[in-house]
């Protein structure tokens, strides 16, 4: 089946998310859409899948125009989609989830799941998925849940399968398994549309690459092109993809967590006796698949979690029991993982957001009065220094793109003397060129003697920044390893193996890294 998107344009008010995009996808190929977060890739696929109606343009299948009024029409035409966030009911079985929306009732009007089970077994055996039709979804690893989403599409005879940022929640090993599945699908004649911003994966799997930047197709690329060439297409200029940093000059271990545990209101243990320390002049990066306790860790340090036990000390002083403001005033800089909710106030100006942690202190205030002129001068400096794309310091932060909001948060938190810097997903949604700049700023903060805690689901970012890597799995610290630990070992640890078990399974001895 040949799929063509011709002149697809999608506007939201005055904002153009897709601008006259042309893409042709052929059977038996993996066609990657490469672009930064916010480039318009997911919007384009939502138009294709019938979730959005295009403002302009046509969708053609085998050279014939089609119109989709919803996902049902797209699926009926042979298009399946696996979304970034899985569309599964956790308490249902695999078979029940696959049947949902595609129910097959017998003559008596009773749902017949046996046909669905048989189809699941058939597809699972063909592609080596290893999926049990009767398994409960919430009991399955994330990688297996993703296979269930793929099975849902294949049961409906999808000839084109869209995978939207499918590796975002996977360990490296699960990512490799998914890439193998994509190759099998391609070889069986299925067209796979792979949406990603990860250069390593796009190069590994693609037959053809279309690069999208700011809602427009800016070029086609050969999978054999270098990562630097692809990055330049994505950003519009040459960028450096490697971070050159000196070995850390370690000082005193001024930040220390001991037996930190966090209970949910339900009684579930979200963090289980986590202990580690960070020295002055060191970056400790936390690796792990999203949802394994990273959020609870950073929010516990900032005084945002209830039911916390253990000890969190900075410079020998206990932080547990202090208010958020007291913790910030003790010298902690914090970049939260959800910038739009916790990082900026959308209705405040950029200038105001840049002093949210210092608005009541000199030089931005005198007594009860704030100093707008000083705030404006600071904003102009930081907008230039961090390349914040905005109409001006008086623009509301909510009008900025996600990546530029992130720059505002980073600029604010790195603009005062710190005793601890915490950044959760520090470059999420930021273009490749800005990642290069922000990584250098984080390393510069380390080199100034600040202990730095980084939390990132991007393993490339963890490896790039870390002096040491702590791996969390289901709320437990499975190990702390050197920053140059091989990715395969880190992947096994992210799946729950200890450092020793991971080294044994990978066949790599620790001494080989020395």
Automatic annotation (TrEMBL):
Keywords: ATP-binding, Nucleotide-binding, Sugar transport, Transport. Pfam families: ABC_tran (PF00005). The keyword Transport applies. PROSITE patterns: ABC_TRANSPORTER_1, ABC_TRANSPORTER_2. Gene3D superfamilies: P-loop containing nucleotide triphosphate hydrolases. InterPro entries: AAA+_ATPase, ABC_carbohydrate_import_ATPase, ABC_transporter-like_ATP-bd, ABC_transporter-like_CS, P-loop_NTPase. Residues 3-239, 255-499 form the ABC transporter domain. The keyword ATP-binding applies. CDD domains: ABC_Carb_Monos_I (cd03216), ABC_Carb_Monos_II (cd03215). GO terms for molecular function: ATP binding. PANTHER family: CARBOHYDRATE TRANSPORT ATP-BINDING PROTEIN MG119-RELATED, GUANOSINE IMPORT ATP-BINDING PROTEIN NUPO. This is Simple sugar transport system ATP-binding protein. It comes from Paeniglutamicibacter kerguelensis.
């Amino acid at each position: 089946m040949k799929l063509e998107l011709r002149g697809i344009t999608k506007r939201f008010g005055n904002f153009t998310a897709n601008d006259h995009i042309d893409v042709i996808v052929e059977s038996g190929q993996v066609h990657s859409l490469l672009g930064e977060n916010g480039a318009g890739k997911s919007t384009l696929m939502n138009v294709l899948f019938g979730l959005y109606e295009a403002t302009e343009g046509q969708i053609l299948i085998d050279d014939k125009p089609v119109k989709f009024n919803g996902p049902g029409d797209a699926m009926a035409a042979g298009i399946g989609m696996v979304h970034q966030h899985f569309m599964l009911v956790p308490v249902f079985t695999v078979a029940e989830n696959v049947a949902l929306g595609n129910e097959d009732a017998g003559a008596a009007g009773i749902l017949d799941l046996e046909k669905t089970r048989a189809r699941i077994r058939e597809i699972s055996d063909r592609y080596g998925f290893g999926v049990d039709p009767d398994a409960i979804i919430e009991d399955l690893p994330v990688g297996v849940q993703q296979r269930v989403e793929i099975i849902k599409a294949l049961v409906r005879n999808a000839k084109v399968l869209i995978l939207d940022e499918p590796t975002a929640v996977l360990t490296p090993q699960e990512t490799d398994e998914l890439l193998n599945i994509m190759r099998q699908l391609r070889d069986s004649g299925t067209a796979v549309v792979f949406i990603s911003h990860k250069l390593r994966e796009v190069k590994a799997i693609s037959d053809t690459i279309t690069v999208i930047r700011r809602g427009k197709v800016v070029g086609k690329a050969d999978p054999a092109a270098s990562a630097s060439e692809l990055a330049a297409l994505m950003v519009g200029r040459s960028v450096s993809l490697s971070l050159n940093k000196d070995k850390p000059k370690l000082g005193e271990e001024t930040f220390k967590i001991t037996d930190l545990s966090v209970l949910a209101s339900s009684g579930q243990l979200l963090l289980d006796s986590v202990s580690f320390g960070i020295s002055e002049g060191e970056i400790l990066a936390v690796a792990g698949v999203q949802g394994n306790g990273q959020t609870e860790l950073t929010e516990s340090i900032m005084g945002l979690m209830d039911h916390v036990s253990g000890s969190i000390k900075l410079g020998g002083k206990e932080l547990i029991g202090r208010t958020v403001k007291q913790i910030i005033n003790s010298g902690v800089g914090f970049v939260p993982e959800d910038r739009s909710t916790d990082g900026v106030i959308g209705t405040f100006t950029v200038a105001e957001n840049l002093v949210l942690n210092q608005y009541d202190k000199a030089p931005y205030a005198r007594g009860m009065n704030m100093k707008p002129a000083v705030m404006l001068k600071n904003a102009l400096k930081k907008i230039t220094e961090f390349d914040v794309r905005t109409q001006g310091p008086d623009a509301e932060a909510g009008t900025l793109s996600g990546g530029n909001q992130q720059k505002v948060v980073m600029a604010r938190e790195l603009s005062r003397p710190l005793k601890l810097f915490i950044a959760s997903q520090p470059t999420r949604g930021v273009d490749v060129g800005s990642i290069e700049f922000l990584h250098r700023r984080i390393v510069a903060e380390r080199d100034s003697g600040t202990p730095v805690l980084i939390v990132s689901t991007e393993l490339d970012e963890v490896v790039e920044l870390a002096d040491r890597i702590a791996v969390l799995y289901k709320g437990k610290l499975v190990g702390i390893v050197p920053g140059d630990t091989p990715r395969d070992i880190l992947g096994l640890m992210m799946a729950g193996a200890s450092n020793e078990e991971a080294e044994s399974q990978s066949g790599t001895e620790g001494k080989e890294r020395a």
